[in-house]
Amino acid sequence: MKQKRIAIFGSTGSIGKQTLEVIAAHPELFVAEILTAQSNDSLLIEQALQFLPNIVVIGDLTKYANVKKALEGKPIKVFAGVEALEQVAAMDCYDFMMAGIVGFAGLKPTLNAVENGKAIGLANKETLVVAGDIVMRKAKEFKAAIIPVDSEHSAIFQCLVGEDSNPIEKIILTASGGPFLGKKPNFLVNVKRDHALQHPNWSMGAKISIDSATLMNKGLEMIEAKWLFNLAPHQIKVVVHSQSIIHSMVQFEDGSIKAQMGLPDMKLPIQYAMAFPQRLKNNFPRYLFDKPNQLNFDEPDLRTFRNLYLATEALRKGGNTPCVLNAANEIAVYAFLRNRIGFLDMTELIEKTLEKIEYIADPSLDDYFETDGEARNFAASLIQL
Ligand code: NAD
Ligand code: MG
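Above: inputs. Below: predicted complex with magnesium ion.
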């Protein structure tokens, strides 16, 4: 394999840091070419000094002078701001983008990489939730390979290798159930941020951790799967599997089910996407069958975790509805993280926003940006009341 030049969008996040670990473990195969971060300038500087990329971008303009000064004398170009982020994604100097920005903010840079015909490791699921139709259409047009990094979608992708002409009957997305599996609304009403951030199986960024606690994450993943694998809503089933050993499954038309398994470790799907179609040897801990073990499966509790119900409805409705869902959810999650609203208030906020924003059946990219802005403003106005 020729050495790949990697652009990590969101290098200071959970996905970004693990991507750098994979690069550090395989210096003959990967080199860090571009690193970007929103506000964590000290970590970005530290990463830049260690990996000596060609370019770094800091989103927050007020941090530019600090980053520039710290990297003085190094062969590293320093840029700042949203436009720089988008322009750098359109550059030719890299081969593979790790799309590790969180939220709607990842859409534009990822779309630029798609239009640039790059290979993309897609962690930023919100990109497909918001504008999956446009992103997948453009990926085809510009021959940009989108390789999923989300563990469930990586699992499905891996199950589909070698099955090109075999149609999918359905996919089974596994959900850990998050930290509040089995709990009821009378418990959830008093839940606080620190408890909600403690995921039993995965260590992740704050936003996705809350999404996992509300099961919105699984809803976003259903929509992500629809676009990645060209599925109808009825072909996507969610099953609670609290051990997170089976990362997801594909059922084919003969009834046969393929699963991808392993210990929960994001470095595996990250490395798989980066090296695809090759599998790289590593020393990650292995799942062992040398003692009695049980894998459990259960139905999700849609009455308690209503975010998953709302997302399933948005998946069915299509148009700009998933975009509204995503925007309201981002506002709700950050309000919950700042202790402004309670755990169950998040669902209420999303539901009211879904009722308010006008439906567009076949949105353009501009429509998506407008919908996102309107939905955010409306959701935020509910919090200020
Ligand atoms: P994180 O919060 O740990 O990191 C987010 C990164 O994005 C940081 O580097 C931050 O600087 C950057 N960022 C944040 N806001 C930005 C903005 N407005 N503009 C530009 N950059 C910005 O998040 P994470 O857990 O690494 O998740 C990243 C994405 O990957 C999310 O979409 C998440 O759903 C997805 N994902 C993460 C995991 C995981 O294990 N962490 C697993 C599956 C999918
Ligand atoms: Mg996932």
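The chain has a mean pLDDT of 97.
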